[in-house]
Write a structure and sequence with these properties.
Structural class: mainly alpha
Distance between the termini: 111 Å
Strand content: under 5%
CATH architecture of one domain: Alpha Horseshoe
Largest sheet: none
Radius of gyration: 42 Å
Order of helices and strands: HHHHHHHHHHHHHHHH
C-alpha cells in the first residue's frame, strides 16, 4: 500500500507535465496562427488530462480557425467582385469575433453589393429606385466612389420638392430650425425661371426664422430671462415687423416690471417689513393681477397680524394678542399657516385662562 501511493503521485506528475508541454506547444501554434497544429496539440493534451483550460483552448482554436476561414472567403469574394458572398462571409466572421474593424469591412461589402444592384437598375432607367439603393450604400460606406456622383445626378426638382415639403412639415411641428434649414437648402435648387417659387421659398424661410426667434423670446420670457427675451424679440422684429412682435416686446417689459416688484416684495417680506412688502406686491398686481401676487398679498396680512399678535403677547396684552391672532387666522390658507396660527391661539387662550384663574383667587 505504501509503495503504490508514490507511484500514483509520480504518474500524476508525469501526466501533468506532459499535458502542460502539449498545451505550451499548442499555444505557440495558436500565437502563430497555425490553427490545425494548435488543435492537434490541445486535443493531445486533452487525451492526457481533460481540464476546463484545455477545453477552452480547443474551443478558442476552433473559433480562430473558423474566423480565419471566413475572413479568407470574404477577402477572396471582394477581389472577385462577389459582394453577396463577401457579405455572407464577413457576417459569419462577425458572429465569431465581432469588432469595429470587421464591422467596417462588412458594411463596405454591403454597400458594394447595393451599388452593384443600383448600377443595374440605373442602366435600365429605374433611376429613382437606384437612387434609394445608392442612399443606403452611402449610409454604410460614406467613402464609396460610385454612389455619391450617381446620387447627385438625380432630379434636382424632386430634391427641391422634398426640401420644401420637409420644411413645411417642420413648420407645422414648430421645429423652426429644421424648417429654416430645409428652406435654405431648397433655395439653391430653384431654377432661374422659377421666380414665383423662389419668392415662395424665400417667404417661408423668413417666416421660419421669425418664428424661431419668437419662440426663443417666449422661452426666455418663461424663464424670466428678460434681456435674452428682449434681444430675441428685437431680432424677430428685424426679420418681420408687426403687431405680434410689438405685443411680445410690450409683454416682456410688463413681465420684467412685474417680476421686479415681486422680488422687492419678497425681500421685504423676508425682512418682516409687511407694509412695504404689500405695497410692492400691489404694484405688481397692477401690472398683472395673478394668483401668485394675490397669495403673496394675503401672506403679508397673515404675517403682519401674527407678528403683531406675538408682540402684544410679549407686552402681556393677551386679549389684544388673541384678537390679532384671530384676524391672522382669517388669512391662513396653507396647512402650515393654519397649524401655526391655531397653535398660537391655543397657547394664548391657555395663558388667558391661567391669568383669569389666578385673578379669581
Amino acid at each position: 500500500m505504501k509503495l503504490s501511493e508514490p507511484i500514483g503521485i509520480l504518474r500524476d506528475k508525469i501526466e501533468l507535465r506532459e499535458q502542460q508541454r502539449l498545451v505550451k506547444l499548442g499555444r505557440e501554434h495558436l500565437d502563430k496562427g497555425n490553427w490545425d497544429a494548435a488543435l492537434e496539440q490541445f486535443k493531445a493534451a486533452q487525451d492526457v488530462r481533460d481540464t476546463p483550460e484545455v477545453r477552452d483552448l480547443i474551443q478558442k482554436a476552433a473559433v480562430e480557425k473558423q474566423y480565419a476561414a471566413a475572413i479568407a472567403r470574404g477577402d477572396k469574394a471582394v477581389l472577385d467582385g462577389k459582394w453577396a458572398d463577401a457579405v455572407a462571409a464577413f457576417e459569419d466572421a462577425q458572429k465569431l469575433k465581432p469588432s469595429e474593424a470587421l464591422k467596417t469591412k462588412l458594411n463596405n461589402a454591403k454597400a458594394a453589393d447595393l451599388v452593384a444592384q443600383a448600377n443595374t437598375l440605373w442602366d435600365s432607367g429605374a433611376k429613382a429606385v437606384a437612387g434609394a439603393l445608392y442612399q443606403q450604400a452611402v449610409l454604410l460606406n460614406p467613402n464609396d466612389p460610385t454612389a455619391p456622383p450617381r446620387i447627385r445626378e438625380l432630379n434636382n426638382e424632386q430634391q427641391l420638392q422634398n426640401y420644401v415639403k420637409n420644411g413645411k412639415d417642420a413648420m407645422a411641428a414648430s421645429k423652426f430650425d429644421e424648417a429654416a434649414s430645409a428652406f435654405e437648402q431648397a433655395l439653391p435648387l430653384v431654377k432661374a425661371d422659377q421666380a414665383a417659387l423662389k419668392t415662395e421659398v424665400e417667404g417661408l424661410l423668413t417666416e421660419a426664422k421669425y418664428q424661431k426667434l419668437m419662440a426663443d423670446a417666449r422661452d426666455a420670457l418663461g424663464r424670466d430671462e428678460f434681456e435674452k427675451a428682449r434681444a430675441a424679440a428685437a431680432d424677430a422684429q428685424k426679420v418681420k415687423d408687426g403687431d405680434e412682435v410689438k405685443a411680445l416686446l410690450a409683454l416682456i417689459d410688463q413681465r420684467e416690471l412685474y417680476t421686479q416688484h415681486l422680488a422687492v416684495g419678497k425681500e421685504l417680506l423676508s425682512q418682516g417689513d409687511y407694509v412695504k412688502a404689500r405695497e410692492s406686491f400691489q404694484k405688481a398686481q397692477k401690472v398683472d393681477d395673478s394668483q401668485e401676487v394675490r397669495d403673496l398679498i394675503r401672506q403679508t396680512y397673515f404675517r403682519q397680524y401674527l407678528t403683531q399678535s406675538r408682540s402684544m403677547a410679549k407686552d402681556k396684552k393677551l386679549e389684544e394678542a388673541r384678537s390679532l391672532a384671530r384676524i391672522a387666522q382669517k388669512y391662513a390658507e396653507t396647512a402650515n399657516e393654519k397649524a401655526e396660527v391655531e397653535g398660537w391661539i391655543s397657547l394664548l387662550e391657555g395663558a388667558i385662562n391661567k391669568t383669569e384663574a389666578a385673578a379669581k383667587k
